[in-house]
Amino acid sequence: MLNMLRIGEVTEEMVDEFRQLSRPVTYTDGIEPTELYPLRQDVDRANESRLSALTTPEHRYLASDVPGCNANGDETSLDALETILGRLLAQQEVVLKVGAQVMLIKNVPDVDLVNGSQGLVVGFMTSQEASEEKITVLQVGRAEDRTVKYGESSDEARPQGDDKLWPLVKFTNGRTILCTPAEFTVNNFRGEAEATRRQIPLICAWAMSVHKSQGQTIERILDQFRIPKHMSRFRGQPAWKPWKCSILNHPVPWPIPGRWNFIVMPSALRAKSRWTRRKPLRFLEDSS
């Protein structure tokens, strides 16, 4: 249905099915749908406003950024490092409080959490305290991020910095996990690390940009399809990839428009049609 919506071919049956989702939203765990905005400054403004409204103490987490090497074997410059890491979801600084709504930006399959899982910060504790209470912790320093339950593993598996307070997050699936730093690496085309950021795998998630939501698996989402005036010429352009969202399992808290409101620019459809008709690139065969 979403693909048909993108190209403007919406039937009455589709509209009726969308309308069935328009009903009041109620969540008993206090985790709200993440609201999508087209512009990053709107996202920052919304998240900062909600975070500042919390009266609990704030905790700041600064990333550790390490340059690698580019495809030529030269060390990544500081300017290039900033540009490369600026494209990551992992932020250079993360500020959290108890009550903050967050989103996980790492896949942790062994506890049914994915990139896009939403949760609520319920406290802060050290890894030692997690060990004593046998709380599941996102483990660091491994090729693949996974979890470990302290009290059931060796001391050497504990994250470094046992005196540091890390955010304890309760996710929508009911799991409560202590989120310690993880590594986010960008590789060059040779497969070598070009830049690495070490940061807690969380971002504030009352709001998020449409661009950053691509590739996420978000369970609760709110998109009112706002388009700024200066971007009105892009209205209806079917360029944004759909994100994975279990929308049919959750109510939609805004009115679903009628069929005549689903408008797609003919020029956008023509451009998409020309693109899909393009022949695939032909690669030279190895003559050796």
Give the radius of gyration: 22 Å
Straight-line distance between termini: 48 Å
- Strand residue percentage: 25-35%
Residue stretches low in confidence (pLDDT < 50, at least 5 long) are 141-159, 232-244, 256-263, 281-288
The proportion of residues forming helix, as a percent range, comes to: 10-25%
- Strands of the widest sheet, in order across it, are 8-7-10-9-6-5-13
Structural class: alpha/beta
Count of structural domains: 1
SSE pattern, N- to C-terminal? HHEHEEHEEEHEEEEEEEEHEEEH
Q: Number of helix segments?
A: 7
InterPro entries: P-loop_NTPase, Pif1-like_2B_dom, PIF1_helicase
Keywords: ATP-binding, DNA damage, DNA repair, DNA-binding, Helicase, Hydrolase, Isomerase, Nucleotide-binding
Organism: Heliocybe sulcata
Protein name: DNA helicase Pif1-like 2B domain-containing protein
Short overview:
Pfam families: Pif1_2B_dom. By secondary structure, the chain is of the alpha/beta class.
